Amino acid sequence: MAFEGIRNRLALCGLALMVGLAGQTTQADAAVSSSSAKGKATAVHKTDNHLLIPLPADEVVGRQDVDYTCSLDEKKAGDDVRSLRTSLPAGRFTVTYLSADIMALAVLPVDGRVMVFANVVAGDGAKYVGDRYSWWAKGDQVTFAREDKGGVSFTCHVVPAVGKTVDH
Fold first, then answer.
1. Mind listing the pLDDT tens digit for each residue in 113-160?
2. CB proximity list for 99: less than 8 A, separation 6 or greater
């Protein structure tokens, strides 16, 4: 699935972290906001889709964009792994890592859309989970997996950028 023409737009907006897509239409074409008066989630129409995360006034937000490529041995990979491989872009793609205090997120293109993965406890490296997928970074290597299908995973590698180091 191609992820061409879609760019992740990440910006700081006052005291909120904003993650979204410029000009990208989603199936619902709506964002969900919290209604403080009644405590219920309400659908709100937006022209640009964004996820707003309120932060304390003194919070510092870190951001790192890292390019990756993924490949697998077609002869050795099973059908489930080959199918999972189509969930990420075929060529080079960018993952954005965001951090604020104890919160860490990874924003990456999965199944032709932008997904936000949250950091979870891992024995080694930095593991992020979103929906049924996991993105587990260890050094210059990442394992992308389906959490609901044990053993279905493949590896991606950092595309080295001149003069930059990677810190997930």
1. 999 999 999 888 899 999 999 999 999 999 999 999 987 999 999 998
2. 61, 62, 63, 105
pTM: 0.71
- CB 127 within 8 Å of CB 81: no
Q: Strands (DSSP E) along the chain, which ranges?
A: 8-13, 16-21, 30-35, 40-45, 49-54, 61-70, 93-100, 103-110, 113-120, 126-130, 133-138, 141-146, 153-158
Contact 136, 145 (CB under 8 A): yes
Residue 154, classed as helix, strand or coil, is strand
Q: Could you give the CA distance from residue 103 to residue 54 in angstroms, rounded to a whole number?
A: 12
pLDDT in tens, 38-91: 455 555 555 567 778 888 888 899 999 999 999 888 888 999 999 999 999 999
List the one residue out of 146, 143, 99, 140 whose CA is nearest residue 119: 99
Report all structural domains of the chain as residue ranges with CATH numbers, in order of start: 8-54 (no CATH), 61-158 (2.40.128.200)
